[in-house]
Amino acid sequence: MCLDFFMAGAETSSTTLSWAMMYLALNPDVQDKCYQYIQNLGEKEPSIEDATKLPYIKATLMEIQRISRVAQGSLIHRLTKDTKVQNFEFKAGQHFIINVEKFLMDPKEFPDPQKFNPDRFFNQGQIVKKDYFVPFGIGKRICMGETLAKNEIFIFFVRLLQKLKIEPTEHKPDPENFVSGITRIPNAFEIKISERK
């Protein structure tokens, strides 16, 4: 069970960071704003405690998770007993998958959903919580690795931006160039990485 936990968490976290590198290269203004916030840490290595001091970083990561839709749907779940929800009746044994992408790309909840915009989660220095932000699923069967993934991604993201600048090359990455199976993974793309002085 622990092996499953770490294998599943490692793949989705690394995929999220791949999307992060792509979106930072394509959005230098967001990258610069993130870096300005990160400079408040100085040379100190980031820790989980720093998350509350860096709300714009959290908002940017939330937008990366929303727009990249690493998990477009939940894993399959099966009813163990007959269930009624409002006027709908479902028999035991029925299989269900949550359409996570529907939530994350809903134009009513996230206007202009194809546009990368961390400010939709950031207002007056505070994180804006949204009910439709469900990259880890929803309900009782939410991903059990959510906390581990959030912490891991935050630390890697901050440390990368502390030390490196990410830029596009003449072959700009295309967010529509991906492969989708259980997870949505960007195809190989080019970016330029340079050390921050």
Description:
The chain is α+β, with helices and mostly antiparallel strands. The chain has 5 helices and 10 strands. It has a two-stranded antiparallel sheet. A hairpin with a 3-residue loop joins strand 8 and strand 9 (184-186). Helix 1 (2-26) packs across helix 3 and helix 1 (2-26) packs parallel to helix 5 (146-163). The termini are far apart. The mean pLDDT is 92.
Short description:
This protein has 197 residues and is α+β, with helices and mostly antiparallel strands.
Name the descriptors.
alpha+beta; two-stranded antiparallel sheet; globular; 5 helices; 197 residues; single chain
Q: Provide the gyration radius in Å.
A: 18 Å
The biggest sheet amounts to: 2 strands, antiparallel
Cα-to-Cα separation, first versus last residue: 43 Å
The number of helical runs is 5
Task: Write down the secondary-structure element order.
Answer: HHHEEEEHEEHEEEE
Report strand order across the widest sheet.
Answer: 1-4
Number of E-state strands: 10
Strand content: 15-25%
Class from helix and strand fractions: alpha+beta
Q: Which oligomeric form is depicted? A: single chain
Q: Determine the mean pLDDT.
A: 92
Shape descriptor: globular
- Runs in which pLDDT lies below 50 for 5 or more consecutive residues are none
Estimate the helix proportion, in percent: 25-40%
